[in-house]
TrEMBL record:
InterPro entries: ADH-like_C (IPR013149), ADH-like_N (IPR013154), ADH_Zn_CS (IPR002328), CAD-like (IPR047109), D-isomer_DH_CS1 (IPR029752), ER (IPR020843), GroES-like_sf (IPR011032), NAD(P)-bd_dom_sf (IPR036291). The keyword Ribosomal protein does not apply. It comes from Hymenobacter aerilatus. GO terms for molecular function: alcohol dehydrogenase (NADP+) activity; zinc ion binding. It comes from the Bacteria. Residues 11-342 form the Enoyl reductase (ER) domain. This is NAD(P)-dependent alcohol dehydrogenase.
Length: 347
C-alpha cells in the first residue's frame, strides 16, 4: 500500500490537521503522482465545513493538483515516469453515458467521482484530495502540464482556470464582447485573465475597492464597486455575459439589471443559501440565468494549452501546509490575492 501524508478535517467544525492514510495500489490504468503544489479553492472551505451538506469525514481537500509522475500502471500510454501531471476536480466517471461520450464527464449521468469528498466507483472507499504527498488517479483523468510555466501558478488552473474558461467558451466570448466578472477571488481573477485574452471588454464587480489596481493589472478595463448603488445603476443594461463567482449569498437583482437584451448571467459560485430572483428582472430583456460546473477533461487540456500559449497563470500567495486554517479564514473574508497555493514540500 502507498502510505500517504496529508492534512485532513476530522469534522465540520475541526481545523485541518496532520493525517495519514493509504492510497490504493497503482492499477494497470493508474498514474502515481508526487504532488508538488495544490491550490486552495473556496469549494474546499465549503466542503471541509460541510456547508453544502453530505460531507465525508475525515476529509483531505484539494483539487488543484500539479506534480510529477513517479510510477505508471502497465496499460498506461499517455504518461511516463518523470512527466509533469495535473489533476482537477474529477478522478473518475462512468465513461459510457451520453455526457461522458461527449467529453463532459462533469455532467456524467451516474455522477462524476470527486477528487475528494467522493467515493471510488469500484470500492466505495472515500476519495482523498491534494493536500497530500501523493495521489493515484486513472490515466484518463490526468492532464498534461507544460514544462514552460511556473508550476505553482499552474495549479489553480485545474479548477479556477477551467471553471471560468468553460463558460467563456460555451457562451462564445469573442473580441469586443462585454463581460462582467463578479467577485475578484480565485475564480474571478482567472475569469478576468481569460476573458481579456479572448479579446473581451472586461468589467470587475467587487466589494473591495482596494482591488481596483490589481483588477486593471489582471486585464480588466473597468471596475465597479458593487456596494455603491449609483455605480451599479450606471452599469445597467450593458453586458453580454456576467460570470458570477461569489461564494456567499448576494442580491442578484442589480447584476440582472446590468445585462443587456438576451444577456446571460452564469452562476459559478455556490453559496450555501439559495438566491431570490424576481421574474421581471429576466423577462424585461429576455435575460437568462445559467450555471456551469468545472469543465470536461478534453476542455481542461484545451484550457491548459491555451494558458501555456498565452502565458496565463494564476496570481498566487504560496503557503506552507501548516498555514491552511489561516488561509481559509482569509478567504472567507475575501482577503485572497488571488489564490493560496500549498507547497507540499512543507508537509
Ligand atoms: P474566493 O477566492 O473566496 O473568491 C470569492 C470572491 O467573492 C471574494 O474574493 C470576494 O470578492 C467575493 N465575495 C465573497 N464574499 C462575498 C460577499 N459576502 N458579498 C459579496 N462578495 C463576496 O472563492 P473561489 O475559490 O473563487 O470560489 C468562488 C465560488 O465558486 C465558491 O462558492 C466555490 O465553491 C465556487 N466554485 C464553483 C465551481 C463550479 O464548478 N461552478 C468551481 C469552483 C468553485 P471581492 O472582494 O472582489 O468582492
Ligand atoms: Zn475548486
Amino acid at each position: 500500500m502507498n502510505q500517504t501524508k496529508a492534512y485532513a478535517a476530522e469534522a465540520a467544525n475541526a481545523p485541518l490537521a496532520p493525517f495519514s492514510f493509504e492510497r490504493r495500489e497503482v492499477g494497470a490504468h493508474d498514474v502515481l503522482i508526487e504532488i508538488l503544489y495544490c491550490g486552495v479553492c473556496h469549494s474546499d472551505v465549503h466542503q471541509a465545513r460541510d456547508e453544502w451538506g453530505g460531507s465525508i469525514f475525515p476529509m483531505v481537500p484539494g483539487h488543484e493538483i500539479v506534480g510529477r509522475v513517479v510510477e505508471v500502471g502497465s496499460h498506461v500510454k499517455q504518461f511516463k515516469q518523470g512527466d509533469l501531471a495535473g489533476v482537477g476536480c474529477m478522478v473518475d466517471s462512468c465513461q459510457h453515458c451520453s455526457s461522458c461520450d461527449e467529453g463532459v464527464e462533469q455532467y456524467c449521468e451516474e455522477g462524476f467521482t470527486g477528487t475528494y469528498n467522493g467515493r471510488e466507483r469500484e470500492t466505495g472507499a472515500p476519495t482523498y484530495g491534494g493536500y497530500a504527498s501523493h495521489i493515484v488517479v486513472r490515466e484518463e483523468f490526468v492532464l498534461h502540464v507544460s514544462e514552460k510555466l511556473d508550476l505553482a501558478r499552474v495549479a489553480p488552473l485545474l479548477c479556477a482556470g477551467i471553471t471560468t474558461y468553460s463558460p467563456l467558451r460555451q457562451w462564445k466570448v469573442k473580441a469586443g464582447d462585454r463581460v462582467g466578472v463578479v467577485g475578484l477571488g480565485g475564480l474571478g481573477h482567472m475569469a478576468v485573465k481569460l476573458a481579456a485574452a479572448m479579446g473581451a471588454e472586461v468589467t470587475v464587480f467587487s466589494t473591495s475597492p482596494s482591488k481596483e489596481k490589481d483588477a486593471r493589472e489582471l486585464g480588466a478595463h473597468k471596475f465597479v464597486v458593487s456596494k455603491d448603488p449609483e455605480a451599479m445603476k450606471a452599469a445597467g443594461n450593458y453586458f453580454d455575459l456576467i460570470i458570477n463567482t461569489v461564494s456567499a449569498k448576494i442580491d442578484l437583482t442589480p447584476y440582472l439589471a446590468a445585462l443587456r437584451l438576451d444577456g446571460t448571467m452564469v452562476l459559478l459560485g455556490v453559496p450555501p443559501e439559495a438566491p431570490e430572483i424576481h421574474a421581471f428582472n429576466l423577462i424585461a430583456k429576455r435575460r437568462r440565468i445559467a450555471g456551469s460546473l468545472i469543465g470536461g477533461i478534453q476542455e481542461t487540456q484545451e484550457m491548459l494549452d491555451f494558458c501555456a500559449e498565452h502565458n496565463i497563470m494564476s496570481d498566487i500567495e504560496m503557503i506552507p501546509m501548516k498555514d491552511i486554517n489561516e488561509a481559509y479564514e482569509r478567504m472567507v473574508k475575501g482577503d485572497v490575492h488571488y489564490r493560496f497555493v500549498i507547497d507540499l514540500q512543507t508537509l
